[in-house]
Amino acid sequence: MGAEPETERLRVIGSRLARSSLSLTRYVAKAGPGLITALLLLILQLLQPPFVAGISDLVFDTYQRAYPRPYEDAGVRVVDIDDESIRRLGQWPWPRTDAARLTDALTNAGAAAIAFDIVFSEPDRTSPARAVEILRQNPEARGDYSEIAALTDHDELLGQAMERGPTVTGYFLTGEANNVRPKEHAGVAVSGSSPLGVFTEYNGAIVSLPMIGDRASGAGSVSLEAGRDHIIRSVPLIANLDGRIVPSLSLEALRVAQGAGAILVRSTDGSGESGRRGLPEVVAVKTGELQIPTTGIGELSMYYTAPHPERIVPAWRILQGDLSEGEMQRLFQGQIVFIGTGAQGLRDLRSTPINAVELGVVIHAQAAEQMILGRFLTRPDWAVGVERTLMVVLCLLIALSAPALGALRGGVLAMLALGGVLAGSWFAFRNSGLLLEPIFPALGVVSVYIAITAVSFYREERARSHIHNAFDRYLSPELVDRIARDPGQLELGGEVRQMTVLFSDVRGFSRISERFGPQELIGFLINLLTPMTDVLLARKATIDKYIGDAVLAFWNAPLDDPDHEQNAAYAALEMLETLKRLNADSDRDPAWPGQVAIGIGLNTGPCCVGNMGSRQRLSYSLIGDTVNLASRLESLTKYYGVSILVGEDLAAQLASFALVELDIIRVVGRDAPERVFSLAGPPEMATTSAFIASQTRMAAMLAAYRSRDWAGAEAELAHLRGPDTIAGLESVLAIYSRRIADYREAPPPDDWDGISQALEK
């Protein structure tokens, strides 16, 4: 009898397990159509068929129409040879003398660059010698018109005007091979492997006559390639002409306007990335101070404004003197001017997401505006991974939840997910200019829900039919438990530590860049940054990153460093000593650009440090106000004329070092004022009588200055200018002399607290 209860208990447990197994099987069967649909969509997303790109284009076109780029005056103008200009000045083509007058007028008005979306490829038929040939063929002609024939050729006059101004000529790229090539006015350097393999190769060009084009300051391609639907969504900034990288008209205009040298093309492996096609792709293009993110084939994704007449000036107003000298300067001084044809019959008409009929010259102008303003549409390299992950997560969520939720509540969940995808894509575009495709995540949500709902509906219909045919047998559906699944997204971030941060930058790097070619410039940076890095590493620093000529380093992570403040101070001083040695050897090194100077900002405080970035790519880095302040301090070294600036918290930890208080300043982007110090030398210097005297007088001067004792402050300044004062304070003393003179002239308000305000980052 004792065994019967135990047998019954085991039977009950077995029955429950069997029912659970059956429920799970049925649950998986209901979710199966959604899971299969998700798998098919994942395969489709990996294949990236062309029709998906077309749908994505339409979505982003809609975004642009809903929120065009707000128009801002970026210093770009368009001179339009419009219908009224043709009516007033005669039929096209105009004599080249008109183009020369237009060029001279814009040059005299102070235009920074004059770019022609016109190709002067044929000789001017109205030139004197050619006109005389026509006249001599007239039976009624008298004389040989030799005086007229001796006049200067119109093409020559235009070439002379081109030479006088900051001009850029345009040329067309063609697939038909020829031997005509534009003059190379500036080199193109590549950081990383050459990305030519991803470009369409052009084998010919249509260029302006040499006497015109060769005298200009630059030349750029005016060729624009539309998509399959004839809409221009991107502009090529660079192109492949017979294995040579050539710039676009807008990029070359920016180069000329800045007076820049070579154009720098950064490829994927030069940026620590990998091309998606197995070949090096373009990441960014740089000219002068402007760095422009591009697509993998070197195109700028266009973000158009709505039509704005403010940027366009009709050509006749310039050529017929309708604009006064003052108006000309107001409109064109310091501007990049694009000249194009908008008259009927001459129109270079294109379609954009914003405007079905747009002038090609306006597209070039808008490209230049974007590059100047930094208003870009970018599709980052992590976008595909995010979209793929989001699609899989949402498909799994709908596939596993909808069977338990039922059609109505599952539909609500699907609508919320769909709305979230579309809203996320829109806000990424609206607020950050990111092109995140909603197509596959949205398609996944809708398709999985439809698949599950359709299969469920089919099964229910079959069940109803079976019940109708066998009403005496009714089988109630099994109930299934709801399964909540966490997608388990990777959580990025790190830990908060007390850290010391160093930010270093080369003074006058733009000037150095102009003197050197790309390879020489890279060699100089290697020769400079290598010994600087040796110093930092010897002092236990972690190198965060190199930003061109700048270095960001930090202490006390990932390994603990109880002396991180002192190590950072010693490292900064040793960097200056290393630079002195490099400068001393500059006479023997032709690759060294004379006397090089650096500025260093040091700060200490709490930072968040750890693996940061995206799910595709992480880097060990740090963020926080401490880092931002270190960067601001480095920038302020230029203002105060000192080499090393130290924040207040770090100065408190470096009491034994030779520190001189310079000011209390409120930096850009930070409300709290900061007391800043110059790190003049190591502890050995801090004990010398000369330094102590200078430090004491500087403190006395600051006390007098902050208490409005101008006479007392000036007296201390006079002593500080003596021969025993420590070197490096000359600019600081000059700053306070100017401030005191200004305050004598216009006293500060009663609530003045002696705090200065930095005007630049």
Index terms:
single chain, 761 residues, alpha/beta, Alpha-Beta Plaits, 4 domains, nine-stranded mixed β-sheet, seven-stranded mixed β-sheet, 27 strands, 46% helix
Summarize the topology.
Layout: H1 3-47, H2 50-66, E1 76-81, H3 83-89, H4 96-108, E2 113-116, H5 128-136, H6 146-149, H7 154-164, E3 167-174, E4 188-191, E5 201-202, E6 204-206, H8 210-213, E7 218-221, E8 234-236, E9 238-241, E10 244-247, H9 249-258, E11 263-267, E12 282-287, E13 290-293, E14 299-301, E15 312-314, H10 315-319, H11 325-332, E16 336-341, E17 349-350, E18 358-359, H12 360-373, H13 383-432, H14 439-469, E19 493-506, H15 509-515, H16 518-538, E20 542-547, E21 550-555, H17 564-584, E22 598-613, E23 618-623, H18 625-640, E24 644-646, H19 648-652, E25 658-666, E26 674-681, H20 683-686, H21 689-706, H22 710-720, H23 730-745, E27 756-757
Helix pairs in contact: 1-13, 1-14, 4-7, 9-12, 13-14, 16-17, 21-22, 22-23
In short:
The chain is an alpha/beta fold.
Number of E-state strands: 27
Mean pLDDT: 83
Shape: globular
The separation of the N and C termini measures 90 Å
Task: Kindly give the count of domains.
Answer: 4
Q: Spans with pLDDT under 50 lasting ≥5 residues?
A: 15-24, 467-492
Largest sheet: 9 strands, mixed
Percent of residues in β-strands = 15-25%
Class by helix and strand content?
Answer: alpha/beta
Helix content: 40-55%
Alpha-carbon Rg, integer: 35 Å
Number of helices: 23
